[in-house]
Amino acid sequence: MTGAASAGPPSASAALPPASAGPRPALRIEGLHKSFGDLEVLRGIDLEMAEHEVVCLIGSSGSGKSTLLRCVNLLEEIDSGRIVVEGDEITAKGVDVDRIRRRIGIVFQAFNLFPHMSVLDNVTLAPRKVLRLGRNEADARATELLERIGLAAKRNDYPDRLSGGQQQRVAIVRALAMQPDLLLLDEITSALDPELVAEVLNLIRELAGNGMTMLIATHEMSFAREIANRVCFLDAGRILETAAPAEMFSAPREERTQQFLQRVIEAGRL
Amino acid sequence: MSIVGGPVDTGDLIGLAGRRGPRRSRRRIPPREAVRSTVIALVSTVVVLGALALAITSSPNWPDVQHAFFDGEIFAYSLPKVVEAFGTNVSLFLIAEVLILVVGLLLAVIRGLPGPAFFPLRMIATIYVDFFRAVPGLLIIALLGFGIPALDLPGVPSDTFFWAVIALTLVYSAYVSEVYRAGIESVHWSQEAAARSLGLTRLQALRHVIVPQAVRRVIPPLLNDFIGLQKDTVLVSTLGVVEIFRESSIIKAAKFNFTPYIAVALVFVLITIPLARLTDWLIARDRAAQESSR
Description:
The structure holds 2 protein chains of 2 kinds. Chain A is an alpha/beta fold. Chain A contains 10 helices and 10 strands. Residues 1-21 of chain A have low confidence and may be disordered. Chain B has 2 domains: 28-61; 77-292, MetI-like (MetI-like fold). The chains are: A alpha/beta, B mainly alpha.
């Protein structure tokens, strides 16, 4: 199953940005360490992403994918290292974390919609309270976004009336409403019934097509192969291997990567 | 006091597919068995109550007790008077309830503030809650109601009603803050993560995301505390405020008869039972909503 030729967004083979390409990377992570008590979850992560690039993080559960995303969003305090977004070091002392989080959207595995608010209010809360948009403008913008994902009719419903796939798409739109520079996706299809996965992945494909810079932790290997510009294999808190998807999935260099992908294939997931 | 509605994980809230908890365990009772158990319940109730009534009314001093506590004429005389005096209790607990809801929430939020910078605030709030939960309400009422007006400070009200409201607020806000706190802690941390990730400040996340969900969950236990507050308004009688209990005591002393107390008890029963049923109904509705969202 090496479908390298068939898959890939337009830029996948043409523009593989080397680590220092471009004037200013969208995201640069240097020597990131993070421990929870005695457990060292991230043991020196270095990663650079160009604007409009899509990078997928793969690896077994517990390898540090989610923690890495949560660190980039400053939901976790890091122990050492630097994270630089669009030239601004967000891990510097005294930065306003709330300002930074506006520029970095994150979508969670369990959606985390606000259950006491309608779909529309879920989407408009941050634009109204953080960007100080008026109710009418925020509603108009949110409705437009909801129309694009075909859920404008559901805007006055509460999240528990929606299917998992619909909830996750609302969660994505909620993050997009803040017009982030960078979108982090944390295993966003892992909690979905299989038949609902496609509608969410289609939305991500569309975002990639529009040039959204995305860092994606995923177990969907075929999706990663199709959408990513680069794939990083995380193992025990380190990026063990980074490669273009075609290479990663057909000829992984590291033994650990081979073992991991072998298990994935045996499970019928690739 | 338990938080009705309980800690709910996000899985339940958002209706993750494929997860079904055990359904209600109450077994269905077949109709014939139902009739039989109703009859048994009825018969045993009649027997127990009858035996009790017989035991009381056949006691040697029953006629005296009946006259002292259940005098129909005095009851009819005192009921309108105590109902009128109950207006004071009503204004006491209505004003205090509003203050309690605000102060209690404030305390709960302060106790949840993170980081070393807020340590002094957290400490003060904790001492406040510990102190006012520990000291009997009657003592707080007496200390404030008699003590502060006696200081005769300029600009400080000496009105006993005012200090009664303050005392009740101090005591009950300590209890209510714990109810709020349990509610706030029952909201899954991922809700705060979602709010903060959108750029909301900690206070905005509390205000718009955490507290609204917490308050919904704690309404039944809050109502429960308010039933306690309504009853505790009679403690204010010790300050000389003419409320329902004070009024009934005046009649008792004048008529040398305890029947006014029975009238007071009746007023409280009539006002409390609807509130208790409302609380039960809210709890049942919460549970139904939770089960339907599974």
